[in-house]
Amino acid sequence: MVDEMSIESKGIKLASGAEDKFIELFSEVFGPEKTNNLAIQYGIEDIYGRSRYIDFAIVTDNEKVAIEIDGEGVHEPGKISHEKYYDDLLKQNSIIYKNWKLYRWTDGQMKKYPDKVKDEMVTFLGDLMEQNISEYLPSQKGSTLELREHQEEALESLKNLRAAGDTIALLYHATGTGKTVTAVEDAKSIGKRTLFIAHTKELITQANEKFKELWSDASCGIYMGDIKEKEAHVVCASIQSISQNLKDFNAEDFDYIIIDEAHHGTAASYKDILSYFKPSFTLGLTATPERTDGEDLLEIFKNVAHKLDIKTAVEKGILAEIRCIRIKTNIDISDVRIRGIKYDSKDLESKLFVPERNNVIVDTYINYVKDKRTVVFCASVNNAEDIAELFRKKGIRAEAVSGGMKQSKREKVLKDYEAGEVKVLCACDLLNEGWDSPRTEVLFMARPTMSKVIYMQQLGRGTRKAEGKDYLLVFDFIDNANLFNMPLSAHRMFNLADYIPGGLVLGNGNKKRIEDDVLRRGEKPVELIDLPVDVLDYEHIDLFNWNIEAQNMISQMEFVRRVDVQSETIARYIREGKIVADLEVPCGNTSFKYFKEETLIKYAQEFNWDIINDSNIKEKFIDFVEKMDMSYSYKPVLLMAMLEQCDDNGKVLVEDVVDYFIDYYEDRKCRGLQAEKKKSLYNDEVIDRKKAKANIFSNPFKRFEDMRFLEKCKDIEYIQFNKKIWKKLSGEEKKWIYRRCEERIGEYFGEI
User: Which residue numbers delimit the Helicase C-terminal domain (predicted)?
Assistant: First the structure.
């Protein structure tokens, strides 16, 4: 065991706690399961081609967000050198130039004003957390196919494309005839649920008739305008209706998707649809494969369509097969603290900076895969340099690579690796993004992580196929941990409970199933002959993973939003043991609770709480206004402010709401009336604007927000009525709400 004193005596600088604090607050806002969406130390290039690192990145199919965590004064010229100041400006401008959104917080902010920072996280990042994070996944494999005179040839070609692993195709014909018939026949040959999308009523109606004619035993329906026949086996839909109602469907509802007039495919609505659904095959139909702006339509289609998951890509032969060997160490990380899915940096480094663990890594290479090109993912830059030096002492040409290296040196190292002169690259963060090498045959996962994003990024560096490369071999270094801070491994990543050293984790087609059958018979597959491992050394892996457990559960935050009761009541019932979570995840000094759907229903029935959903939320809001409980007059004043100040979409400037509150209570005082109870800030001779704003957001806004009646907007200056409520409220109902607020205020002040 190496303590902090000995680490610092080596001149190794431990990581600061600012990033850990961000993860802690992020977890409190969104739940620790959402921290899987964060890529840590994400690599980009500035406008001069130099490598830079974003503290945290969130990359979805539609958006890229950079999050920078800074020390106090880090951007003030008086406190840092001009060179550092200008360099930071270049990095920031380059991020924005490359179409990233950029948000910044400081360590001082997070310590002094954690609640404010959490509110800002909800506003800036809330919607993003609902999107699919898939930057690290492979794109679809696709081909362009010209429809000639014989549709049978086209159908045979489509069949062959799928057999070769293609998941997307573009079918074109200059005359504009025969494409729909070919598409219908191809969909029929597969037989699975099909979605046909077009942009005009005529095309949708024609396609529906053609499906009924050629595929008579399948139910066919239209999804357009007021017609919503979404349960049919074949759905012919308008782009407008489907894009506006995506949440009415599950991403896996359709196995085959056809996009007619596919040259419209770059429009935002098409991108939304293509990135949302996850069919086995997507077919685009067009009269011409070239767009007038010169963009290659097939490439656009591949880029905007949903990303393939790695398992599918390997099974289809797009990526290399993956085998795995688990190497157990005697390092105990069970008491390393976790912040969401990020290990506490100081804790982790103090555990891993030990010669014994480094020796295991180097010896493993020499014993198993000597002379194969290998990337070792290390826990830190210093860790990478130590391991590279140890490799060299054992006669292995190895180099450490990091963002701190001069670009010219880094490029030379990577070039030498590609040429085979360097056999081993020891990397911390440089190779997570923006680099891969098809010639890489081996990955060493020696950096413990609980982040799926990081693990998959690292895995992706070696999954490209190359001539002479039979498979990618992954070595997972398994340190001792407890159930809740267990690092990811290939088997945990792909939910494989049985481990055979060197066995397939992912295989092409049904190859993994065939190999598993061979192993069960006690035989050794020929692919494993060159590996010095005992293939009959079976091990059952405890796959408990709270991320997987939690993903289909309801968080405590969502529990509050689903029932008509205050968050304080839920929290108190949990403390008193009246409510027991199905899963509790420790995180720092707190823990996160998750509930099954049936558990929510059980407690709602037990405590006589109503469940709130989109279909009844307007009625619940009206009922809430009718019965409105009041400790102060703030709730009805807020609703009156919202109704008077909001635009046609139910949105209002926060500052206008603050003005309304101050004016309202000043007016009462001017008329000789009591402003509020004695302890209220509105009784002060001069009402403090900052205090008023804070008061509005803590009480009453939070209560309405807990119930999902009001919400913050993407633009932090605004708040708004829940869109589901606002859309359904009639003019008369809005007038009734205003009158009811006036009545409740009258009743309240009459009582006090």
Answer: 361-544
Clarify whether residues 725 and 674 are in a common domain: yes
CA atoms of 170 and 465, how far apart (whole Å): 24
State which amino acid sits at residue 456. M
Q: Name the strand (E) or helix (H) holding 373.
A: none
Query: Could you tell me if residue 244 is inside a domain?
Result: yes
Written as one string, the DSSP assignment of 621-690 is HHHHHHH---SSSHHHHHHHHHHHH--TTSEEEHHHHHHHHHHHHHHHHHTT---S-TT-GGGSSS--HH
Domains contained in the chain, number: 5
Residues 337 and 269 in one domain: no
Q: List, in order, residues 6 or more apart from 585 with CB less than 8 Å away.
A: 32, 484, 546, 550, 591, 592, 594
* Helix residue spans in 80-192 (DSSP H): 82-97, 107-112, 114-125, 151-163, 179-190
On the question of pLDDT at 354 being above 60, the answer is yes
CB 532 within 8 A of CB 368: yes
Q: Are residues 370 and 485 in the same domain?
A: yes
User: 101, 63 in Cβ contact below 8 A?
Assistant: yes
Q: Are 294 and 319 in contact (CB under 8 A)?
A: no
Residues 282, 273: contact at Cβ < 8 Å? no
Residue 581 sits in the same domain as residue 645: no
Task: Report yes or no: 310 and 506 within 8 Å, Cβ to Cβ.
Answer: yes
DSSP 301-356: HHHHSPPPPHHHHHHTTSS--EEEEEEEEEEE-TT--EETTEE-HHHHHHHH--HH
Q: Residue 81 domain-assigned?
A: yes
Same-domain status, 528 and 385: yes
pTM: 0.64
Token pair belonging to 510: 């049904």
Q: Which of 242, 271, 306 is the last residue of a domain?
A: 306
Q: Which of 683, 682, 686, 685 is nearest to 694 (CA)?
A: 682
Q: Quick one: 160 and 279 in the same domain?
A: yes
472-488: pLDDT as tens digits: 999 998 887 766 677 88
Structural domain of 512:
322-547
Single residue among 257, 282, 306 that ends a domain in this structure: 306
Give the residue ranges of DSSP H helices in 468-562: 490-493, 511-520, 546-551, 556-562
Residue 295: the pLDDT is 46
Compute the average pLDDT of residues 703-719.
83
CATH number of the domain where residue 72 is located: 3.40.960.10
**477: β partners:** 327
Residue count (the chain): 752
Q: Are residues 71 and 195 in the same domain?
A: no
Q: What is the pLDDT of residues 370-404, one digit of tens each?
A: 999 999 998 888 888 999 999 999 999 999 987 66
